[in-house]
Amino acid sequence: MSRRTRRVDPMLATGLSIVGLVFLIGLLAPLLTSHDPLAQNVRDRLASPSGDHWLGTDLLGRDVFSRLLHGARIDVPLAVIATLVPAVIGVTLGIVSGFFGRRVDAVVMRLADVVQAFPVYIFLVALVFLLGPGARSFVVASACISWVGYARLVRAEVLGLKSRDFIVAAQAAGIGRRRVLGRHLLPNVMPQVYAYMASDAVLALVALASLSFLSLGVQPPEPEWGRMIADGVDRIRSEWWLSAVPGLAIVIVGIGFSLVAYGFERQAARR
Amino acid sequence: MSPLLSVQGVTVQYPVGKSGRLTAVDDVSLDLEAGRTLGLVGESGCGKSSLGRVIAGIRVPTAGRIVVDNCEMTSRRSKAEARAIQMVFQDPASALNPAISIGSMLEELVRVHGLAPDRESARDRAIAVLESVELPTALLDRRPDALSGGQRQRVGIARALILQPRVIVADEAVAALDSLVKKSVIRLLADVRDRLGVAIIFISHDLDVVRQLCDEIAVMYLGRIVERRSSSDLFDSPRHPYSKALLEARPHFGERLDVASPPALAGDPPSQMELTTGCSFAPRCRFVKDECRSTDPVEESFGGSSTVRCHFPLSR
Amino acid sequence: MSGATILEVEGLRVATSTHPSLELVRGFDLHVREGETVGLVGESGSGKSLTLRAICGLLPDGVRRSSGSAHMIDPGGSKVDAPTKLGRGIAMVFQEPMISLNPTMRIGDLVTIGPRSQGLLTRARAHERAIELMHEVGIADPERRSQAWPHELSGGLRQRVMIAMALATEPRILLCDEPTTALDVSVQDQILRLLLGLKESRGLAMVLVTHDLAVVSQVCDRIVVMKQGQIVEQGETDRVLHDPTDEYTRRLIEAVS
């Protein structure tokens, strides 16, 4: 008899707090700073940090601090969306593939093989290029590529769970397959999926920043962090904070997501 | 009176490799009356679990049919058919969904089968069935990991009962339990049989456990029933050499093992892939004669539902 | 049975590593004499398996011996800490031969792996010894079988191999953790007879952990009953089973008879 205390894992709590805080900051950005992130003032460009501009201004005279905060409204939600969409697709395909097997399984797995045959970034860049750069293309491209990880993970879990007595019992008791998949199989698969999603979010964030760095992601003048890094690259010797600070923001959010992933794993392991 | 459950000519075969076939159950037929318990015993590879799963509708047989109350069961059971025969599983750890509470599981079954018009009455039924297996109502909101092995097994029985089946197949239902708990669960099954008139097929490798619960015992070897007798008759005077060997091999409480005498049964339980001519037990039989190796014995009945499949059944 | 004590366990306590106050075995004492078979019975959670493993130092992660001692006593009378004698006087036989045998080694190599790793056998002699041992544990056609892989053998044969492996180290005592629980009843009968036979032919002492009282009554000279980490009763098998002094023991016996 286990007397498991339903305590939330501290790593999970910390990670969620970090991500939540950044998300909140992004949400409240217009209230936290009076400067317009898009307002250019070429005469005042590349100013050092001061009382008025906490992090100075960039090449076009825009307030860096404001752009940093507003960047959170772009990067965090987009990373989450670019994780959720492939997750839904992948989990669905994985369950169906694992449970029904045979032809469905063969088709889905071959499709997965094809997708995985391409190096991820090259595929990503190619797709975005095809669809035209921008946030929407990024999400679509992520969906086309990242679903595979979820599908394989879920399929493996389902293969293992399929023959467990409680699944067999549910079917033997006359419960329809759709219910068995949704009510009995899925809840037992999700804990692993959550952990995977959180680490996938880190990858999505970095992919978004990278694409934007290459001018293929979020387009200027939007204050996306990866784009900001790119803008500051030429001034790295003098105004190093232009690239370093948004980079740090990415790292912090990345750590947040990673802690969430680690926390989920530890929590699942304790069951 | 026609029997409640009639198993007719059931065969279960699995393809192995490119052209091989493994016969788990070989043309087995048996009848069972309402309110009776039949023990299905045998060692690994005898087919008792496969047969049990065919009866419960979990496995589709290669041949044969299952008839309950004169209605033939379809191979993919409908909901109504599923209600008629329910199964209790061996492993308390994996028999219950760890992600949902006991109450949710029971209520879902009730609702899926339309046995209650609303949530209230579904919950009432769940409460009633938990009480019938002597479990506190508080367990309704707990998940399986909060329960002991014995409690989980009782929940497994409750799950089988809530659909009001006519037949219950218990597949090693007490094998994973401690001896003290075993007794109480067996008592519960006996009680269920007496109160509800449910027929029980009790699959077990443990003859002593089977004796406590079952009116009759069918001994299986290599996919066939080699003997079927009332429990007391089987223990007193087994007629098939394999039954006798099983009875001798099991550890007898209070008796020292005499190392000087040979083991009750030498060799290993056989593989189901090698089909031999003649009696399948001949290679290991102490009383084997020439005829046993050349001809396959037929099942002969004598007295009621007693049967034996042997050329030279043992007598007192 | 000469009557000399060969295994002496005193005040053995086992606790979890993270919470030393959570004790799983609470003060276990046992003296095993040469050639004696002791049955250690209890239900799940009684601590019987942990006790056995603590004696020979094979506790799993997260659990450790918190106090007490286990000593092997040499014919000369000197005491040696039992875990150091593992493979040199004590041998252990496990429950699940399926997972206890290295699947990447042939049976012939597995049997003598103990003495070979201690440098006690040359390769040539090792093969001979393997055949001898396989013969001793009743494996038919040992030459052919020595080339087999573990997964090719039945449960009963694998258990015989495990016993042969244990015997290869020339132990004076065998610690068996539910050696027949996972086996068919006819195979269990064979293995129990084998173990009893070895007791007679080699003067081997044994501690047999099991939940099955009937097995104990068939095979053991003495019985120790455990409940929740403690010994509740011990004594000669016949006496305890016919005239138990402890209530729990009485209930266990009732459940079987």
Characterise this structure.
The complex is a heterotrimer of chains A (271), B (316) and C (257). Chain A is mainly alpha-helical. Chain A has one domain (11-20, 51-270): MetI-like fold. Chain A is built from 9 helices and no strands. Chain A has helices at 10-32, 64-100, 102-117, 120-131, 135-162, 165-172, 177-213, 225-232, 241-270. With 316 residues, chain B is α/β, with parallel strands linked by helices. In chain B, strands 6-7-8-3-9-10-12-11 form an 8-stranded mixed beta sheet, with helices on both faces. The longest helix of chain B is centred in the middle third of the chain and has 18 residues, at 179-196. Chain C has one domain (5-100, 170-256): P-loop containing nucleotide triphosphate hydrolases (Rossmann fold), CATH 3.40.50.300. The model of chain C has no long low-confidence stretch (mean pLDDT 90). Chains in contact: A-B, B-C.
Short descriptors:
heterotrimer; A: about 270 residues; mainly alpha; MetI-like fold; about 75% helix; elongated; C: about 260 residues; alpha/beta; Rossmann fold; 6-stranded mixed beta sheet; 4-stranded antiparallel beta sheet; 10 strands; about 25% strand
Summarize the SSE layout with pairings.
The complex is a heterotrimer of chains A (271), B (316) and C (257).
Chain A lengths: L9 H23 L31 H37 L1 H16 L2 H12 L3 H28 L2 H8 L4 H37 L11 H8 L8 H30 L1
Helix pairs in contact in A: 1-2, 1-9, 2-3, 2-5, 2-7, 2-9, 3-5, 4-5, 5-7, 6-7, 7-8, 7-9, 8-9
Chain B lengths: L4 E12 L3 E13 L4 E5 L6 H8 L7 E6 L2 E2 L6 H6 E4 L13 H11 L6 H14 L16 H13 L5 E5 L7 H18 L2 E6 L2 H7 L2 E6 L2 E7 H6 L4 H9 L40 H5 L5 E2 L5 E2 L8
Parallel strand pairs in B: 3-8, 3-9, 6-7, 7-8
Antiparallel strand pairs in B: 1-2, 1-4, 4-5, 9-10, 10-12, 11-12
Helix pairs in contact in B: 3-4, 5-6
Chain C lengths: L4 E12 L6 E11 L3 E5 L6 H9 L6 E11 L5 E3 L8 E4 L3 H4 L6 H5 L1 H5 L5 H14 L5 H4 L9 H14 L4 E5 L7 H18 L2 E6 L2 H7 L2 E6 L2 E7 H6 L4 H10 L1
